[in-house]
Each structure stands twice: as C-alpha cells, then as structure tokens.
Amino acid sequence: MQASHIVRSYDDDLKFLANRIAAMGGHAERMVDDSIRALVNMDQVLARKVIADDAVLDEGQREIDERAILIIARRQPLAGDLRAIIGAIRIAADIERIGDLGKNIAKRVVAVSETRQPLRLFRGIEALAELTLTQLKDVLDSFATQSVDRLGLVRDRDARIDAMFTSLFRELLTYMMEDPRNITACTHLLFCAKNIERIGDHATNIAETVFYAVTGTLMPAERPKHDKSPDVVAAPKGS
Amino acid sequence: MRAEGAAGLSEEAAGKETLVARARSRLWRGRWILGAASLALLATSAMTGGPVFAALAGMLFVTAVTVFLPAGGESGRTAEGPALRTAGFSTADLIGAVRDPVIVVDQQTSVVETNAAARSAFLLLEPGTLLSLRFRSPEMQRLLQHLSEAGFEGGEAEYLERVPIERLYRVFASPAGSSGLRVLVFRDRSETRRIERMRADFVANASHEMRTPLASIAGFIETLRGSARNDPAARDSFLQIMQNQTDRMARLIDDLLSLSRLEMKPLIDPDSRVDLVAVVNDVIGALAPLALDCEVAVTREFALDQAPVAGSRDELFQVFENLLQNACKYGRSGASAVVSIAEAGSAPSREFQVTVTDFGPGIAEEHIPRLTERFYRVDTNGSQKGTGLGLSIVKHILTRHNGYLSIVSELGKGSAFTVHLPAA
Ligand SMILES: Nc1ncnc2c1ncn2[C@@H]1O[C@H](COP(=O)(O)OP(=O)(O)OP(=O)(O)O)[C@@H](O)[C@H]1O
Ligand SMILES: [Mg+2]
C-alpha cells in the first residue's frame, strides 16, 4: 500500500518535470517563431509580446531546478532516473537560453525597421529560422517519445544551419560594403542570424542530452552514413 | 463528411430498432423516439453545416456508436448472448471509422488509442505517449491542463504547427462518459489559414518581383520613343529584351500560382501510388523540345523498371520538370544531361533516388544551402532566365511527400540534383 503510493508519486515527480519541459519548449518554439515574424513584418507589437513572454521561461527553469533538486534529495534516484532528472535541468537551461535569443531578436525589430532592407535578406533569415525551428521541433518530439531514432538527423541538420548562416553572413557583408547606409540595420540582421544559428546549437545540445538520458551513452559525433533529412542537403564533395 | 455521419446515425437507429423489436415489444414505440432523435440530429447538421458543426457531428457519431453498439451491434446476424453480439468490435474500429484525427487519452494525457487519420497526421503517437509532451503550443497546453482535471466537461483550442508544413487544427476535447478517458477530435483548418496567408504573400511577392521587369520595360519604351526612335538595330535588341522580361513575368505568375496551389492542398494520401520511372520518362519526353533548343543530349540510366512511391503524379512531374529544365538552361555548356534512377537502403527505410546531372558551370558552395529559398537566384543581375521559384516548389513538393533533395556541385564540372523518395 505504502510502497505503491511512493512509486506513484515518484512517477508523478518525473511526469511533472517532463510536462514542465514540454510546456517550456512549446513556449520557446512560439517565441522564436513570433520573433522572426515580428522581424520580417516589422511588427513592433508582436516584438513587445515576445519580450514580455520571456519571463515565463525564467520562471519555468527555476521551477524545474527546484523540483529536480528536491527529487534527488528525497528519492535518491538510480542511474536511469538520475540521468533523466539531470537531463531535465540541462534541457531547461537550454530552452531558457533559446528564449533569451528569441527575445534578443525581438529587441532588434525597432532598429531594423528604421531603414528599408531588401526582401531577399529577410527571406534568407526566414529560411534559416525555418530550418532551425524544424530542428527544435524534432528534438523536442524526440524528448516527448524518448526515442532516439530520429536524432541521427540532428548533426546533419546542424551542419546545414551553419552553412546557411555562413552564406547569409557573406550576403549581409556584401550588402554593407555596397552602401554604408545599410550598416546599422544589417549589423542587427547579422546578430539576428547569429542568434538563430545559436538557437540551433542549443537544440543540438538538447538532442545530446535526450540521447544520453535515454541510452546512457554519448550521441555519436559524426553523422551516420545513411542519413535522411526532409530538406536540401549539400552533400560533401566526392561522396 | 456530414453526409457520412448522417448515414451512420440512421443505420445505427435501424440496428437498434431490430433489437428492440425482438427483445421487448413494449419498447416498440421507442423506435419513434430514437428515429425522431436521429432525424433531429440529421436536420440540425444539415441546416447549420459549418465546419465546426461537422466536427461535432463526427463526435456525436463516435459517441452514438460507442453507446449503441454493445447492445445492437451484430443483432442482425446472431441471437446468441450479448457478448457475441459485440465480438469483433473495438474502440479502435469505431474511431477508425472517423475521417478526422481522433485521439483517446487517459486523465494524464497518456495516449490510449488513435485512429489512422491521427497517426498519419501526427507521427510518433504510440500508446503511452504523453500528449502534453507532443502538443506543446501554449493553447494546447492550456487545453490539456484543463483536460487532466477531474471535473473536465469539454473544451476546445487551436493547434498551430509551423514546421515542416504549416498546419492549423481546431481541437475538440470531451470526456468519454464516466470512463475517465477523454476524446480529442482534430478538425483541419489549415486550408482557411493558408488561403489567408497566401493572399498576403502573393500580393507582397508578386508586386515586389514584378517591379523590376516592369521598370525595365518602361525604361525601354521611353528610349524607343525618344533617342532610339530611328535606330533599327537598337530597336530590335530592345524589343528582344522586353520580350524576355514579359516572358519572365508570365513565368513568375505561373510559378507563384502553382506554389500557392500547393500550399493549399492537404497532405499526400499515403495509399496513392505513382511510378517514378513512368513520370521521369514522361518528363524527358515533354522536355525534348527544350533540350533540343539548348543543344543538350539527355540520357537515361535506369537501374529499375518500376519505382512506386506514394504521392501525386502531377506534383512529382513538376519536380523532375524543374530539375531537368534547370539542367538544360544552366548546364547548356556541358551539352549533355544524365537522368538516373536507383534504389537505396532496405525495408523500412528503402528509398528511390532520381538524379539529374549536368556538366555545366556548377554552383559555388555558399549558394547551395540557399537554392531552395523563394526567389533565390545565383546570378541576380546577369541572366534573367528564371524566377528563382523552381527549386522552392521542388522542396515544397518533396517535403509533402516525405522526401528531400540533395545537391552536389563543383564549379567548372557540373551539378547533380538528387530526389530522395521513400519507396511504397
Ligand atoms: N543545374 C544548375 N546549374 C547551375 N545553376 C543552377 C542549376 N539549377 C539551378 N541553378 C541556379 O539556382 C537558381 C534557382 O533555380 P530555380 O530552379 O529555383 O529557379 P529558376 O530556374 O531561376 O526559375 P524557374 O525554375 O522558375 O524558371 C537559378 O537561378 C540558378 O542560378
Ligand atoms: Mg528552374
């Protein structure tokens, strides 16, 4: 009787952590998406909403940290559960950073809106954000199902995010050199692109944490030979 | 949808009727009440008929079937005990009969049962999965939070998914009797949303992309009426440029239209079949005049006689058409193009690969990751050959088909575009 009671509420503890992480993740996904839309549409109202939304993630992270520490102290979990609990702390930290980066993009909306920039640059940023959001969604879905099958794509997609960022970076630089009046706005866009690229890095961190929590081993560093990804791949030369 | 639900309801009433007649004749009159009830339902659903009501009708259908079947399910075939009458029926069959995605969860939002529509719309829904972890948008989180409370009486929310394909659902949640389980029905509202967004997008993109060619045409007209009025050589070359610009504008409109049509269509039917070998052959045939024009010799290297995949023939035709067109237009200098079909991988992840290779100028590395962006062209000022929409259409279609595009290119040597599609 007593034993089953303890088991159930221990289970509840772990479920609580997972649920809070998912809610934080969903919130961060929305923030990033909103921040990009605010940037592309020069929507300052939406930008302000994103900035205000960030507080939810700070609170969420604090809550997860506290609960996780309590669980460890009270239940003295064994290896598998301990990995999951420590994993929750790390994932919450990554999500909180993703929120900060989204908020940072939102803060730049005003400055970028001051001068008119070519649509082409925004399309580049949108495409980069789309790839990054797909990465984040896939990783959080893997957390939801505790399955590592689809994590094989993560490394490859991360490489593509980097390649896209590099190309965008170059384009922005060229544009700044062409006309010094573009420098201020383009610098902000450059930071926005960099922020998106870093959101991708945090998504990769989460993937590594999920992989470790589920399997107890580290996620392989190279991408597998037979990778599959629902998008464009610049395959390495000579392959 | 509405018609089906209605048919289901009246059949149900009919089944109930026979059982009632056989078992207890004093309830004989009850059939009128039942009949009237289902008629009322029918009438209301026919009258209101909005999408929301159709969803509600779907839910009513499920509830009705669940309530009535244990008693009257197979009464027409057997008069044995009640246990036998329900034999062969399960909740899975029942929700399987509904076209909209249906998910049954327990109070902790852990998946108990899903129908095929739900599984094909949302991957990763094995029983036991916590729905609150899968549907993370703030609105769904609120609904699921509400749903896990003891006195939950029903609610609804919007579910928006942006990537990889934008989708919007209206989600209706209700408790399943006193079982403690909850039923979620998802009504697809993506189309309305896409139409809205498409309108805005179309206006923004079309106006922006049209401005450049229009400005250049206007400039040439001005020159033709002024300084070049009496210069036949200049006039000819200006008219040629103007024609190129109008061609490009016409193409732009075609591309934008086909992109927006694509964005409006729902997902691919997983049971449809298309043979890639046939599609590719058709494309090569259709583009023979262009290839001749560009002086590009197209050769086939097919490792298979047949390559069946799930998908839409017209859309896949567009994919290979775009790729082969590009190979002819941009790879002209190589004078040849190779189209190959092969297979790779085994059982669950077996795929077909269709590669279009040209031996033209190739594409610089920094452009490759961005080719599928809308309007992205490598050489913006020089050639006015294209609109930059072709590859973004290709990417869009392949995403809908659970496939992807990979690009290998080397400057001075040529490019290879490979389409990867899961084998059916
Ligand atoms: N085989 C190729 N070789 C070299 N460059 C290519 C090749 N295919 C595409 N490109 C480059 O990629 C750009 C984008 O191609 P895409 O098919 O998306 O648009 P487009 O051909 O310009 O327009 P459309 O297909 O609508 O006519 C092209 O403008 C071209 O610069
Ligand atoms: Mg093209």
The protein's oligomeric status is heterodimer
CATH topology of chain A: Methane Monooxygenase Hydroxylase, Chain G, domain 1
Ligands, deduplicated: adenosine-5'-triphosphate, magnesium ion
CATH superfamily of the largest domain in chain B: Histidine kinase-like ATPase, C-terminal domain
Number of strands of chain B: 12
Structural class from helices and strands of chain B?
A: alpha+beta
* CATH-defined superfamily of chain A: Phosphate transport system protein phou homolog 2, domain 2
Distance between the termini of chain B: 28 Å
CATH architecture of chain A: Up-down Bundle
Mean pLDDT metric of chain A: 88
Architecture per CATH nomenclature, i.e. the level-2 architecture of the largest domain in chain B:
2-Layer Sandwich
Largest sheet of chain B: 5 strands, antiparallel
Find the biggest chain interface. A-B, 45 and 48 residues
Q: Quote the beta fraction of chain B.
A: 15-25%
List the uncertain runs of chain A: 1-6, 224-231, 234-239
Please state the average pLDDT score of chain B: 80
Helices and strands of chain A: which structural class?
mainly alpha
- Gross morphology of chain B is elongated
CATH T-level topology of the largest domain in chain B? Heat Shock Protein 90
Top CATH class of chain A = Mainly Alpha
Report how far the terminal alpha carbons of chain A are from each other.
61 Å
